[in-house]
Amino acid sequence: MTFCSEAGRGDELLRRMARMDLVNQSGPENQRPIIAPATPNISMSTMAANADVSGQKDLSVLIMAMRKLREGIVATKRVDDFSIQAYIFCIRLSILVKHMESYHPAILHLLKKMHTVQPLTNTELQEFVGYLVLDLACRQSDLSQAYLVRNEYRLHDNKVDAVLRAITHDNYFLFWRVKRSVDGHKAKLMEFAEDSMIKQALKCLGRSYLSIDLPAVEQSTNTPWPLLAKEYGVGWQLDGKKVIIRKPKTR
How many domains does the chain have? Predict the structure, then answer.
């Protein structure tokens, strides 16, 4: 709660969460960078490393504290306003840092155990069913189960429906348009499907064009060209502002 209250505003909290990275969290404790004294000569890279260390420490404390809180609630079989709000807080925070080991079981417990004893408000129910549907579709790539959950809980969310349509029909244009319009929690869950959408977009462009404008490539993949060339190894050639996908065969 202190971590969240220090952020002050919602956008600042999202910014701080975005700086936290779970990828390198498993590194040995003794290999972490040593925080250098605050001197005028400290480099920007050192300052960034120190900020990352601080973020990793905060994240570890947050994840462990939330886990202990949920375990205590489950052990006591407590279902009341406090326990429900605690779960809601944990789920939202875990989604922002993409810690699926925390938010996925918490959503299932909230919907299948707590909601059956003390029903959530319709707004809360729609919110967390939407998160579960997005997780099934984007992270687990289980569209059939996503549609099943959507119908079971009678979810009415136009943006979640649009995401399901985009993934079902490999509509990368619709996917990126929806991702730019949803809130931070839904956008984080949609990130799990970004890689497959980028690959699908590249495949479609590669089959359809001999050459294409660079802005069109970056807009279709929602990815800058240097990252496409480095991470996806497209093998296409950049000629000024035009991308040469393949050259026509000469007779």
Answer: 2
